Amino acid sequence: MFDDSRPIFQQLAERLEDEILGGIYGEEDQVPSTNELAGHMRINPATAGKALNLLVDRGVLYKRRGIGMFVAEGARALIAEERQRGITEHFIAPLLAEARKLGLSAQDIIRLIAEEDQK
User: Fold this and answer.
1) Which residues form the HTH gntR-type domain (predicted)?
2) Which of these, 26, 118, 3, lies nearest to 77 by C-alpha position?
3) 62 beta partners
């Protein structure tokens, strides 16, 4: 369910993002409440609330006072854009740096990726 690599609230926020990307929650859909998440995930309600508030702060969710949390318009695109930047920063940039050291061109990298994809 959760691992020890990162704080639980970050993992829960990422899980909710995955569900938005996967279409489980669409724009304007209500997401589970703090207490529902805490009960279902068997975590402290404060931890669940911290995950939801993180997503609110980033513009992925918004609060309707007295009703609950909802997926914001454009949330899916926002998450996808952030994750694409993450792929570039954490994978592509280091890959290109290593490729330069090895004298590999962009076409060589594309070929290697295509070969790996065929496996």
Assistant:
1) 6-74
2) 26
3) 70
CB 69 within 8 A of CB 30: yes
CB-based contact 60:17 (threshold 8 Å): yes
Two tokens, residue 18: 């995955």
For the chain, the first-to-last Cα distance in angstroms comes to 29
The top-level CATH class assigned to 8-74 is mainly alpha
Phi, psi of 105 (to 5 degrees): -90, 170
Q: What is the residue-wise DSSP string for the chain? A: ---SSS-HHHHHHHHHHHHHHTTSS-TTPBPPPHHHHHHHHT--HHHHHHHHHHHHHTTSEEEETTTEEEEPTTHHHHHHHHHHHHHIIIIIHHHHHHHHHHT--HHHHHHHHHHHHH-
**pLDDT tens sequence across 15-54:** 999 999 999 999 999 999 999 999 999 999 999 999 999 9
